[in-house]
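Quick entry between incubations.
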Amino acid sequence: MSLAELSTRLRAFAAARDWEQFHTPKNLAMALSGEAGELLSLFQWLTPEQAAQAMSDPELAANVEDEIADVLIYLVRLADVLDVDLVKAANAKIDRNETRFPRIKDA
Amino acid sequence: MSLAELSTRLRAFAAARDWEQFHTPKNLAMALSGEAGELLSLFQWLTPEQAAQAMSDPELAANVEDEIADVLIYLVRLADVLDVDLVKAANAKIDRNETRFPRIKDA
Amino acid sequence: MSLAELSTRLRAFAAARDWEQFHTPKNLAMALSGEAGELLSLFQWLTPEQAAQAMSDPELAANVEDEIADVLIYLVRLADVLDVDLVKAANAKIDRNETRFPRIKDA
Amino acid sequence: MSLAELSTRLRAFAAARDWEQFHTPKNLAMALSGEAGELLSLFQWLTPEQAAQAMSDPELAANVEDEIADVLIYLVRLADVLDVDLVKAANAKIDRNETRFPRIKDA
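Done. Structure below.
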């Protein structure tokens, strides 16, 4: 499924629950940040080494996937209500970063 | 461009700058949360009505697109280093949410 | 109890649980941000009017106090491990803000 | 200066700039989370060892103090508009944590 199809699914999900009234840019930016905070909390007491092995612990892996999913869900909803093309915006930013941060080795 | 292609582009971008050493799960979760906070700050003093019109102000719109891009970029990098399929994880979460939050109207 | 006494209490609390090893600046900044995100999530679906009345709902009020407490706890711990005087730092910042943002009315 | 005096100073600061209209609980929770995100960003690419030495770099130290100050400022403003006693709330939370997390050594 593409990101566009995910966006359509989420739009229908919100409509079927009469949640569009809550999905304002301000509220969605808050929800996105809150979920990013929950994701963060999964890693906060881990050493860098433990965090790098997070996905080999099934319970932690499930929580990580769950929080990553929530971040993507609110990001896609926010982009939809603001009419922002997510992948296009990311590519435009990477184009600018190509100039700001020169390559130091051949890939 | 698909999300998979964006992920490949970002992986090459990091490799060409020797940034893989910084792109640990813990650091990327921090960067993601920091960028979500910057996005949040664009809306913090706006009324709900002003926030809903954010994209009709060209300067604010550019900043919103820029911060949304940064959130997506770090989310895609994090999913890549953790080997999480972003869209699959989101769909699995929406499947669970379909059960948790019943529809109240036909879409 | 003053903020200095709270800091001393929290330092002893951490020591008695052998948690100093986890209370690094990086980890505490993550915990602080995660708790700020939980606080945010309490307000995310509320209208401005509902949020302004948050403390008249006993259950919500208890959650708000709980999350505010968590933010302060991690902020005080972070300031302690970094040896930052919180109130002094805040006053120095307000001094700078007095210049940046002129008064528009007599208080 | 005590936290109560800091709160009074911040209240007067907001009043003198007609900012009370912006200092709603929802907006202040957003500002708090945004500033916690900026603090986080100062540590995101540092190793745990580098982060532990943050205050020996004068420029980084100044930025850390600045962001810590901003977090405290918005936390104090939020507690003021919600009429929450910050230190009392923190102590009540630590009381509960004393039970949840037993001591493992004598302090």
